[in-house]
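Much of what follows relies on a compact textual record of a protein's fold. A record is reproduced here so that you can trace the correspondence yourselves:

. . .
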Amino acid sequence: MELRDLPSVDELVRHSDDPLAVDAARAVLARAREEIRAGGDPGDLAERLSAELATARRPTLRRVLNATGVIVHTNLGRAPLPAAAIERAVDVGRGYSNLEYDLVDGTRGSRQDHVAALLRRLTGAEAAIVVNNNAAAMLLALAALAEGREVLVSRGELIEIGDGFRIPDVLARSGARLVEVGTTNRTRAADYDAAVTADAALLLRVHQSNFRVVGFAERPSLKELAAVARARDLPLLDDLGSGVFVDVGDEPTAHASLAAGADLVCFSGDKLLGGPQAGIVVGRADLVERLRRHPLHRALRIDKLGLAALEGTLLLYLDPARARREVPVLRMLHEDASVVRGRAERLASLVDGTVEETVARVGGGALPLTELASFACAVDEALAAPLRTRETPVIGIVRDGKLLLDCRTLADDELDEVAAAVRACR
């Protein structure tokens, strides 16, 4: 075929009534011209138009089967939601809801009321507020409490997390002024005390969630930092990053942070908590009220579906044993390696693979030193790309010439689906 043989856009879409057909035809013809100039044959253009239209109408945000062994995988959507959270989101999303309506008084209500009491019960806080993620929680707290004034932070806590997000940048955008105290590896409570001026508004502690400083290192305890804050009549904000309600290694809980003297604690909803994306702030009622009244609150507030899913997740935590069973992140974290091995053996038997011992990770910028004993089904490395590009992708780890399908992050009811995908790609 030569360039002059290509049909016009009108000719190509003549028999299609799809409103997207014209744009799709232009894309098909543009690629066909490139292929002809390169000496190739573009083939059946009508078929290519049909394929282009199918692609245009296919959702790009899709469910993925996570066989990477990374439990809170940022690129794969972080925490998978508990069934109870999904049910709440579906129930609320299918129609209208009392998002900001008081059913008792018949007056306008607050969306914060739907989770505030649960968060108070779970953390021991006086009050709580929820926004759309933890970066927003930090931004709102700094803007409401320290705009135009100084915030004291240890140099060892000026962290960067995923996608270039840096604590100093958030401070700058909030209007607060950063005051660095101590050194990268050693900071003491006295360093904070010495840095307090008349312009100081807040002491900020940032959890080193995605790294650890070891060796010649020192950090004040939260109780020591709280003593400085009380003596100087300044609030102490503790950014936990992930945040948990139950024991998960050395990850601090919001309840323990408040008990140690933090005035406000902020953390994520979609990491170790195992819920939807959210930024949660708990602590003193007067400080939370200042956050609620700040103009940024409306811009950063959580939406109704996220709020419904968060409520469904928090309700599970009223019974910690139930939460460990039904919150997928907690199940994967605590599941015995022998159970994971059994899952890998079953998958290997379904696809003629082999079982390999491996190490799973927590991910999501939490517990960076924690290694979880795990087992994977190993198959041919060549399957990685076709599995990744399926309608429901299967994502594993390529290592030593094999594709490892780590079974710590696969559920029992996903094994048959993964096996069918592997067989179809061979």
Q: What stands out?
A: The CA atoms of residues 303 and 343 lie 37 Å apart. The longest helix spans residues 21-37. The chain has three domains: 3-55, 65-75+329-425, 118-301. DSSP finds 18 helices and 16 strands in the chain.
